[in-house]
Amino acid sequence: MKNRRSLLTGALVPLVIMAIMLVNLQAVLADADQVAKGKELAFDRKKGNCLACHMIDDGSLPGTTGPPLVAMQQRFPEFEDLVSQISNPLLNNPNSMMPPFGLHNILTDEDIQNIAVYIYTL
After folding, report:
1. CATH number for the domain including 16?
2. Domain that holds residue 60
3. What is the band of 58 on the pLDDT scale with cuts at 50, 70, 90?
4. CB contact at 8 A, 90 and 100
5. How many C-alpha atoms does 122 have within 13 Å on its Cβ side?
6. Minimal CA–CA distance to 112: which of 75, 86, 81, 91?
7. How far apart are CA 60 and CA 100, in angstroms?
8. 90, 96 Cβ separation under 8 angstroms
């Protein structure tokens, strides 16, 4: 009985580890897709247009009105604070020049989420 339990446990542990790795791989692939969509929106002059005001790693013709988008995880330790900043920067700074993309329905919630995921990688 004891050997059977050890055998079962020994076989079960690798399966659990593989399942966890598969879930993590799916999350990474989903995040990679979100990052790509977010970058496309952020660089799109008709959508997010982040480059109009911000310098971004490999963007061309960046603006200088807003701060460079670097070290974003240090600047926004909480991801949701970054989402909020993109959606409605007026909450943190009523005099902000940044358009409230969510408040004015310039971007959808999904677009804002995708852009935030991308920007969080910078």
Report:
1. 1.10.760.10
2. 2-119
3. confident
4. yes
5. 23
6. 86
7. 23
8. yes
